[in-house]
């Protein structure tokens, strides 16, 4: 065996980091449009005000105080407004993807471009027309669209009026949004991801201004402590899990040939030592990430979920039909992101990062300039871990390294990126050839440079194509091929056989 002939090589982006055109085509305001830029040492911010005009500043990932609403503040740069301007460059960018030989491109749909306020009666025709053009352009180049419906995005109106995903009403608004997409592109799109990184606890509830839910009476578990805030996260994610299951059922009724997946952040974790407390501690931390893929792939919360909820003094609120929805409408495949591995150290058990992972250093691994450990062998480990657990096809929809690329004489020599991707593909190949893991495809993250989600920087670049833009949004937006562009093109042309 080698890579399957129909293996889906490609790349991935998110609308809020790539698309721009934030006020064009009757697009509404999304919560992401309120987030400033930052650096690896200085977090991104949201400015908020209450009815009395009192102002507070919160960091990304923190709870927005009750009664406060986010707003744009003069003198600050908001990267999502322009991003790297796919809105005006989509034909050029898709042509570059086609030149690399992409078999698929993972894109996300901006909710506010389709329903500007989220609770609109009818969809926005201009927004639909834009994505019609994008999908038709992809199909013209024989690139399969891989559409993510919800990717760390939300209409600001749904956040301020309803309190975000803590409010169960968002399930209906999401399903209305998803139905429009399924019906519109039922004959053009096969692969769908209902929710991006559904297990990232801060990704949706915070961006949804969830603390406003007291005002709406959506739920009674709001509190002022981190433990109580964790309950909001779990309840919000439960609503997304139910919405995803309901969307799966609806999609299969529209087109039974759809391939439907939910996506999780599932970079791996090791025990720092062979001490039993480290070994079991790593196991417990891993459960906090896998709990949600268990729901989407198996159809139910695992036996240990209640122990995790008890740790946060949280009681999950379910409606009578929720368990049935989850059980009968699981995903066809599991999409996941893999960037690095981390370690569990019993002496620092409360330090966490994406997906409930321990963030302790691993002395055996090199790091990216932003401090992320580089572990290609960990990808093979995770592929086996997930396939052993679920026996469902896997799809690596994010992988890559952020780096400060140097443009000189109109060239970018990014050997470090080639090395990173090459070594991960080698381990992916072993998982397919030796371990017989079923993998649908591989779409490295930020295939054309985009704004960093975590820091809001441009200099933290992932792409095979350089975009002339700095951290404050200044530049020509010119696209320039990096050395990795030509290397990845060869990889795809040879279906992963030539990696050097």
TrEMBL record:
UniProtKB keywords: Glycosidase, Hydrolase
PANTHER family: 6-PHOSPHO-BETA-GLUCOSIDASE ASCB-RELATED, GLYCOSYL HYDROLASE
Domain of life according to the entry: Bacteria
InterPro entries: GH, GH_1_N_CS, Glyco_hydro_1, Glyco_hydro_1_AS
Designated name of the protein: 6-phospho-beta-glucosidase
Record: active site: 398 (nucleophile)
GO CC terms, sorted: cytosol
PROSITE patterns noted in UniProt: GLYCOSYL_HYDROL_F1_1, GLYCOSYL_HYDROL_F1_2
A Pfam family it matches: Glyco_hydro_1
GO BP terms in the entry: carbohydrate catabolic process
Signal peptide positions (record): none
GO molecular function list: beta-glucosidase activity
Similarity comment: family membership: Belongs to the glycosyl hydrolase 1 family.
